[in-house]
């Protein structure tokens, strides 16, 4: 599988989080720590579902919940793109 | 899609937006739509319904998916979600979420049936466990029904792959599969125990969809066994139940011919050149015709809407050896070169049905677009693309679903053909009264029995025009009132020289001391213009007089659709009471309002 281009991954992550958390992309960039938003279990699972669907990856839930910032999330997806496949 | 979501956030969706919503297969988009629709603005013609959800697992995304699916079918839902972990208690105590829901959805998962550990070398014990849990569920459901008039919706449960594959003996695995299919069959059979139970086949539906049923991570982490795709499939099935229960079923299928009911253009290739029957693609068109015929068998009225030469079409319908749908299958045949929207409008007028009773199936995007623009209430279904998919496109939204078939449903296509014959018969009479007199109209009135409950509840749900108060009584309410001495629920059957229309009218009456209150009265638009409503009022007054009632009180609550009934009570001899749209008469003090051309018969009484 080709390496996933980071820029589209970041753009997709921001778009999904913006939709799920009802925050503007600008606000998310300004405050990238997920816990500072309404990042509860239902929001995080909705984001997971959308991210996996749009970016064609399957994430390890332990690692996903370990992501503290949006940057962590982008890095997790980028690394997962080369090491996981959809179940 | 963002445009649609933006619209949904600002205004109640009309038919166009609902059609778009119904076409969305992406669960993430439907989930977003469901979230936006949580603040649904007032207005529009959405039919309100209180829907409760109780679950053996986490409800999670099912809530927004269900909301979006319900709105797509024309429902304005008020959703109430039960607390996590209260499934059994809610049913056992008859304490459903919400005050008095119209529908309660039971979201089930395999965990409910598989309690504790089980042995892979003893499939019989596992089967016995499944059977035991099913029995407990049955008891809970029946207990729940004792405290509510809601319709309970359950579903079959897909078998987890891990359960199946844990058993390594292929013989034992087959036995396990048999037990699981037996569980689902028994779940489906619950619908036979009470008319308020509906069971949808989620497991069967998922077998036909390109979505995974389960996500083990979400199950282990949040007790969310199903994927969003599976939950959307279930939400759509539930929405079909609520849609049918709310009287939003479509009654008419208007179909095109060229490249829809057969392949090719008749005017170009002639009758012998059209593709119909035999090998692909002709077999696809033959199957579509058989499907349409089966819909007709179940009461769907067929309208032919084709731009063609009439003679060529008549010849093909009568003479093609593979033709399944002959001329007599169609209540209205609009074969001409006029715009199809005009033809559908005329067909709606002939049938005396609203355009939102229609489904239009056509291969031409132009024709579909034109009909959608001119008649937004019509449900438009595309018949272009590979003809092998058209049957699926026609059926997949469940537009014609009804809770159960009544005798009148089955007769409906013939009744509407009789209507067309009646229109022909009408020519040649000097006056309307001469014509009505020659029709030999007969109204049979009687208190409803258990046999009539389904049809009377259906009339209540579906009748919008001659519906005096807008109060709708479902099967449970009709059953309760028909067996209560303080109430009288009457059905009215109409026959004439062309046939039996079946039960076309109903009245719900409450006896309050010496006063009879007509809570509502409905009459199918199929028999408008014949004075049947006055024969009904006359029967009620005579019945009240016979029972010694001092007064009969009726009410008219205007709506956007019942203008046809405005002034009805006064014409029937009632006097405005000055209170909130009520009208009163002392039975026996006014001349009979029954038209001279109608004979009224007393049907055999039930309990009354």
Features:
heterodimer, A: 87 residues, mainly alpha, 5 helices, B: 608 residues, nine-stranded mixed sheet, five-stranded parallel sheet, 19 strands, 41% helix, globular
What does this structure look like?
In chain A, helix 1 packs antiparallel against helix 3 (41-55) and helix 1 (6-21) packs across helix 5 (70-83). Chain A contains five helices and no strands. The radius of gyration of chain A is 12 Å and the shape is globular. Chain A has helices spanning 6-21, 25-30, 41-55, 61-66, 70-83. Chain B has 24 helices and 19 strands. Classes of the chains: A mainly alpha (87), B alpha/beta (608). The interface between A and B is small, with 10 and 13 residues.
Q: Roughly what percent helix of chain B? A: 40-55%
| Number of E-state strands of chain A | 0
Largest sheet features of chain B: 9 strands, mixed
Structural class of chain B, by secondary structure, is: alpha/beta
Q: State the end-to-end distance of chain B.
A: 57 Å
From the helix content, strand content and strand pairing of chain A, which structural class follows?
mainly alpha
Number of strands of chain B: 19
Beta-strand content estimate of chain A: under 5%
Shape type of chain B: globular
- End-to-end distance of chain A: 16 Å
> What is the quaternary state of this protein?
heterodimer
Task: Tell me what portion of residues of chain B adopts beta-strand conformation.
Answer: 15-25%
Q: Could you spell the SSE succession of chain A in H and E letters?
A: HHHHH
Mean pLDDT of chain B: 92
The pair of chains with the biggest contact is: A-B, 10 and 13 residues
């Amino acid at each position: 599988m080709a390496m996933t281009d980071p820029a589209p991954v970041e753009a997709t992550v921001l778009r999904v989080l913006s939709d799920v958390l009802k925050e503007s992309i600008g606000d998310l960039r300004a405050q990238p720590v997920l816990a500072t938003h309404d990042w509860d279990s239902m929001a995080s699972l909705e984001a997971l579902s959308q991210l996996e669907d749009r970016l064609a990856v399957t994430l390890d839930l332990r690692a996903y919940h370990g992501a503290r910032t949006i940057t962590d999330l982008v890095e997790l997806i980028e690394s997962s793109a080369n090491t996981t496949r959809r179940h | 899609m963002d445009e649609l979501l933006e619209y949904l956030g600002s205004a109640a969706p009309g038919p166009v937006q609902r059609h778009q919503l119904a076409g969305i297969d992406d669960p993430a988009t439907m989930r977003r739509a469901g979230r936006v629709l949580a603040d649904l603005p007032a207005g529009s013609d959405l039919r309100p319904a209180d829907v409760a959800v109780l679950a053996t697992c986490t409800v999670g995304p099912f809530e927004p998916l269900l909301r979006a699916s319900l709105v797509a079918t024309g429902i304005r839902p008020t959703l109430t979600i039960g607390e996590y972990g209260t499934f059994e208690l809610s049913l056992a105590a008859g304490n459903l979420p919400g005050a008095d829901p119209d529908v309660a959805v039971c979201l089930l998962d395999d965990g409910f049936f598989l309690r504790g550990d089980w042995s892979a070398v003893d499939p019989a014990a596992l089967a016995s466990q499944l059977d035991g849990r099913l029995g407990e569920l049955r008891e809970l459901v029946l207990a729940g029904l004792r405290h509510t008039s809601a319709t309970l919706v359950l579903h079959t449960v897909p078998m987890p792959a891990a359960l199946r594959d844990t058993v390594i003996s292929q013989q034992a695995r087959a036995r396990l599969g048999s037990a699981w299919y037996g569980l689902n069959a028994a779940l489906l059979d619950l619908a036979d125990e009470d008319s308020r139970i509906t069971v949808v086949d989620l497991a069967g539906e998922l077998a036909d969809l390109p979505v995974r049923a389960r996500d083990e991570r979400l199950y282990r982490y949040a007790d969310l066994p199903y994927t969003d795709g599976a939950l959307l499939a279930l939400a759509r099935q539930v929405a079909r139940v609520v849609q049918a229960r709310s009287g939003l079923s479509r009654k008419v299928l208007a179909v095109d011919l060229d490249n829809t009911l057969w392949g090719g253009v008749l005017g170009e290739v002639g009758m012998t050149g059209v593709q119909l029957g035999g090998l692909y693609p002709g077999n696809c068109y033959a199957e579509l015709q058989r499907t349409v015929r089966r819909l007709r068998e179940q009461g769907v009225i067929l309208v032919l809407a084709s731009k063609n030469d009439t003679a060529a079409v008549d010849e093909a319908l009568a003479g093609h050896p593979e033709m399944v749908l002959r001329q007599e299958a169609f209540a209205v045949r609009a074969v001409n070169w006029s715009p199809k929207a005009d033809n559908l409008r005329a067909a709606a007028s002939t049938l005396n049905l609203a355009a939102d009773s229609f489904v239009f199936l056509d291969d031409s995007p132009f024709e579909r677009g034109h009909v959608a623009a001119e008649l937004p209430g019509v449900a438009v279904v595309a018949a272009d693309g590979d003809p092998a998919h058209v049957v699926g496109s026609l059926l997949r939204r469940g537009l014609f679903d009804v809770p159960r078939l009544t005798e009148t449903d089955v007769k409906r296509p013939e009744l509407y053909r009789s209507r067309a014959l009646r229109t022909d018969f009408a020519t040649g009479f000097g006056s309307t009264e001469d014509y009505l007199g020659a029709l030999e109209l007969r109204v049979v009135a009687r208190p409803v029995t258990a046999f009539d409950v389904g049809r009377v509840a259906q009339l209540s749900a579906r009748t919008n025009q001659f519906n005096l108060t807008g109060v709708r009584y479902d099967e449970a309410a009709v059953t309760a009132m028909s067996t209560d001495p303080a109430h009288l629920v009457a059905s009215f059957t109409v026959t004439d020289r062309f046939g039996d229309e079946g039960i076309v009218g109903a009245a719900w009456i409450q006896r309050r001391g010496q006063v009879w209150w007509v809570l509502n009265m409905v009459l199918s638009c199929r028999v408008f213009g014949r004075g049947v409503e006055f024969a009904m009022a006359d029967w009620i007054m005579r019945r009240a007089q016979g029972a010694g009632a001092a007064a009969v009180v009726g009410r008219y609550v205007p709506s956007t659709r019942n203008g046809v009934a405005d002034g009805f009570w006064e014409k029937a001899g009632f006097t405005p009471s000055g209170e909130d749209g009520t009208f009163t008469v002392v039975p026996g003090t006014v001349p009979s309002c029954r038209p001279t051309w109608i004979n009224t018969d007393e049907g055999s009484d039930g309990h009354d």
